[in-house]
Amino acid sequence: MYAEERQQEILRRTREAGRVDVMTLAEDYGVTMETIRRDLTVLERSGTLRRVHGGAIPVERLGFEPALAARDAVMTAEKERIAKAALAELPAGGSIVIDAGSTTGRLVQVLPSDRELTVIVNSPPLATVLATRSNLNVIMLGGRVRGRTLATVDDWAMRPLDRLRVDVAFMATNGCSVEAGLTTPDPAEAAIKSAMMRASRRSVVLTDHTKVGNDYLARFADLADVSVLITDTGLDVGLATELAAAGPEVIRV
Q1: What pTM was computed for the model?
Q2: Domains contained in the chain, number
Q3: In what residue span(s) does the HTH deoR-type domain sit (predicted)?
Q4: What DSSP element (H or E) covers 11?
């Protein structure tokens, strides 16, 4: 197992269990405790874990929301597969809204150049990438920019959505569960996510398997509101069946 693979697995285990200890991880992966300590240091520097005596806990346990750059650095191969699979949900023409997020950011990178689309975003970095594409008509939702996620929020961002009818919304989420639906730590982001989904005929959620089973402060949708949920094969088949029973078509890639 490569170091990056081991670190991603440690992050997954930490989020699932709420805490991991160095000795157990070293035994399970057949490496030294010093190697595990280095892994935890890498993950702490990425903003996804917090070192504690003898082990680590996920930053979510401390009420923190990882910054976009930290989230973008983990589960990279899975996010790329999810983004490519999402291309099958694009309309032949028309309009889409792309939510701010690390996996949706991968979708922006792979949008085809042979399709005329109006693309609505609430992320200045994503708008900058899209604006250079001659086949796209890009609409940027204004508002307050959250430094942690680089998403625009609040009334100036939400108001235009009341007057729009979009073909497909491609959504990001921090948490996804049968019980709580789709959740995110910040109420302002939850509000604009809800508005995006209300303004769209169909909604497609892009999320890696580490988000499934987690829930956060602010709910922005029920699973019944989701048309398609695209995740990776790390998601247990039984859990995927439970999610599908709650409403969306679940695609594992």
Answers
A1: 0.77
A2: 2
A3: 3-58
A4: helix 3-17
